[in-house]
Design a protein that fits this description.
two-stranded parallel sheet; 4-stranded parallel sheet
Length: about 180
């Protein structure tokens, strides 16, 4: 009730992508919702020396939560590691044990049902493949740039995204 009342008073609502406008249907009139996409400094985030990446290093950056696909990645690590024993999955971001706002797959509408992230990590560690997982926590920009430059693959298998800042930062911006 309070959210509806507050939204009626909004003079302009900003969202990061067209697909996110629907989340405010019935709350904010469509003509008062505008899209403002995320931006990234392409000079800062380009990888000037792509040959320096570490083979078989996979990097995940974002909220470590079920909705961002973190639990799905953890469950896939044993299968990948059996075929590529040198693989290392590196995770940066905040661990979230409970979902705050994403409960459905944005494309299919199906509910997202998975174990809490700490349970998925415990299952991975119990499988004997925990050595392929490395959590570096929340990183500052210099370390983030180094991690992005050193990975051979970036992934963010999110169930719902607007205009992902993490994907923009990982994008291989061309040298000019």
């Amino acid at each position: 009730m309070l959210v509806k009342a507050a939204c009626r008073r909004v003079s302009l609502g900003l969202v990061q992508a067209e697909v996110l406008k629907d989340q405010f249907a019935g709350l904010i009139p469509e003509e008062r919702i505008q899209v403002v996409h995320n931006t990234v400094d392409t000079e800062l985030y380009k990888n000037p020396v792509p040959e320096r990446f570490t083979p078989k290093r996979v990097f995940f950056m974002g909220h470590l939560s079920c909705a961002k696909g973190y639990c799905d990645v953890l469950s896939a690590i044993p299968a990948v590691a059996r075929r590529h024993p040198e693989v290392k999955f590196v995770f940066a971001g905040t661990r979230l044990e409970t979902e705050r706002n994403v409960f459905f797959n944005q494309l299919t509408g199906a509910p997202i049902n998975c174990s809490p992230p700490h349970e998925s990590l415990e299952t991975l560690e119990a499988s004997g493949f925990g050595r392929h997982h490395r959590y570096v926590g929340v990183v500052e920009e210099p370390e983030k740039l180094e991690l992005l430059a050193s990975c051979c693959l970036f992934l963010l298998p999110s169930y719902s995204e607007g205009f992902s800042q993490a994907v923009l930062e990982a994008w291989p911006w061309p040298n000019r």
